[in-house]
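Entry 14: structure prediction run for Purine-nucleoside phosphorylase. Input pasted below.
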Amino acid sequence: MSIPTPHNNAKKGDIAKTVLMPGDPLRAKFLADTYLTDVVQYNAVRGMYGFTGTYNGKRVSVQGHGMGIPSIGIYTYELYNFYDVESIIRIGSAGAIDESLHIGDIIIGMGACTNSNYESQYNLPGRFAPIADFGLVKKAVEAAEELGYKYKVGNIYSSDTFYDDAQALKEWQKMGVLGVEMEAAALYMNAARAHKKALTICTISDCPFTGELTTAEERQFKFTQMMEVALTLIEE
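Run finished. Output tokens:
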């Protein structure tokens, strides 16, 4: 396929080898404005902003991916397969399933369960277990330790439904799943199929079982700890 794509104005070479991806394009803009230097905006199609800049001398891009598996499936497929991106780190929000997690805590998603049928496209003779790149997981843990941020590593649940029934989440809780979000499983599958790297780092934005909740503004501007962990994962 030729580029630019129907969803991305970038030309070959505009996007770095490592891309940090929040769901919210305004969070992408906030990260670029706050942490990067020499920033160039490469995309604004459908309001899904993408920027490339420099962090500690390393080139990095940041781009929104939207909500849900179909959306992140499109954007990450194009980045891996059309723009030669090697690593994608999703920096998103998640609801706590593990009741020891609270607002602002970090989940490093080692694996992703899902109720999505995304894997059906691969015609596999069984079920695929989407997992993150171990090297990225290891580096993220080391960074969180060094920065002193509260985190847990484990399984997350990528749901096709935002308004999940609380009892259904209780069933995932029984399996040790840490949190619920809507994108990681597709990201991990796209990375596996393209033989590339992926990781999801989420900040807890709400706790369905306790009623804890954040505002849209807080999710856009205050979830900086996961950004700082992700920025340590930039590969040259």
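Notes: The chain has one domain: 18-231. Will compare against the previous run tomorrow.
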